[in-house]
Amino acid sequence: MYEEASPSDGVRVLVDRMWPRGMRKEDAHVDEWLQDVAPSTELRRWYGHEPSRFPEFRRRYLAELGDSGHRRAAEHLRDLAGHGELTLLTATRDLGHSQAAVLAEWLTGNP
Fold this sequence. Notes:
This protein is an alpha/beta fold. It is 34% helix and 9% strand. A three-stranded parallel β-sheet has the order 2-1-3, covered by helices on one side. Helix 1 runs antiparallel to helix 2 (54-64). The protein is globular.
């Protein structure tokens, strides 16, 4: 989210439930904000970005993507990915242990 936007990014989608602190919407270069594809508040709080919890977070989050609260947003994200370049945006600093990493794997069929 904090990196410079690039023309090669394609559609830029924020996949966080909350808007990043200190980021003005006018400066964000976000095409869509899919709050409903983000992990539930309960799962996000449980995880707390603890890398040791990431495997269980990943398992639970993948399960959430199929539930009624996430399904429509997840399908929309998959549709966007099928029509060109897509950049997933998150304010998380540890990208390898983020919902964006899980979504990227899920979108490419490698979960």
